Amino acid sequence: MRKRHINTQILGARRGESGLIWVAAIVIPLVLVAPAIWNGYPLLQYDTGGYLARWYEGYLVPSRSTVFGLYLHFGEDSSFWINLGIQALATFWILQLTLRVLGMSGPRRLLGIGIALALTTSLPWLVSLLLTDIFAGLSVLAIYILVLHGARTTGLEKFALFVFIAFSASTHSATMAVLLGLCCLGLVAWPFLRGRIPGSGLLQGWLSIATGAAMLLSANFALSGELAWTPGGYGVIFGRMLQDGIVGRYLRDHCPRDNLKLCPYRNELPATADQFLWGDSMFDTLGRFKGLNDEMRTIALGSLKEYPAQQARAALTATAKQLAMVATGEGTNTWIGHTYGIIERYIPSQIKPMRAAKQQRWHFDFTELNYVHVPVALASMLLLAAILAWRSWRYGFDDLTLLAATATSALLGNAIICGVISGPHDRYGARLVWVATFVVLISVTRRFGSGDAGHSRPG
Known about the structure:
The chain is mostly helical. The protein has helices at about 1-30, 35-40, 50-55, 65-75, 80-100, 105-120, 125, 135-150, 155-170, 175-190, 200-225, 235-245, 245-255, 275-280, 280-285, 290-305, 310-325, 335-345, 350-355, 365-395, 400-420, 425-450.
């Protein structure tokens, strides 16, 4: 009788666990799209229109992935709710898969951590936004799982991770660069950590990024007829050098002898890259990227050679600033006329629901939200560094230490890539820093949490 009673308790516990899994699978995706539901429409950002236009305009523009443009076009008939559904389910999948490979797959943990992330980080705002940013952090976790924990996933999951990483890499050059940097670090560490870094997993990580590059080149060729990379690299880094005063110095030194288009404007340069590239400036007068690309390349490369000390100081400053810039909402609560114009021109069926949304009626203010998000983000980065240092000393390179190392490397790489090339922006920090909070929550839960019955964890 006692054995039967124990078996009944076990069966009841398993049924309860199964029920909680379904609760988590419903609650977490809904919480992640709550900002869009409240808004009445998927959130838009200044850059959204540039991606949307790729299908209709059929030519390449700087920093706008055609792959992501095709992804958005796929969801147009659903008012883009299909896109948000994909983003919410992908986020839920990656979160639970990360916990599972760490031996923490209990639904109570998943629910608790998922809701904590939704309440304290930018994650639900990224999921609810029609922009590439959600794929930056998710792809970091995905490549961690694929490379280090492929043996703990099924063949179908491995394939899905591979495709997801390739797609994420193709949506934004900075995301691809961060993933590439992680694979390079893995390659460097592999001879010393062969027992922790499987060679086959590392190869799969490299191949997934290569596939992402092939996807982007193929989409560019299909839409524009050009087998070319997405343009804009020199223009973006030129903008960062301009706001650091390096372009002004180069023009002062060279205009007396070089015939540069910007020479007549050297005393009228805007203070920031955003004002120069996207505002009303001489950039428009001189033909934008098409008219100034060669000159911007000449100035960018020339100033790197001539002012290495100033460039190094500016790069270090930009990296430090980027690490500290993590506020939610940049480019979402401002006038986004270009995106409105693209929707009105090419997708007139979306004009009415778009205009009815709270965002388009100026009901968005992230000030109070960032009273929570910014301190949590900054504290999470500090705690992440402490966790990495403590665990590597106490436990060596176990699973959680390697996750902390992956997240730390991704955050630092993102700050270097985005800060040095594009200049520091809150958007670039906010799209990735929630991963630090996720790792901290995992570490705290493993350290102090009672856990879910029936689920073991690696040491």
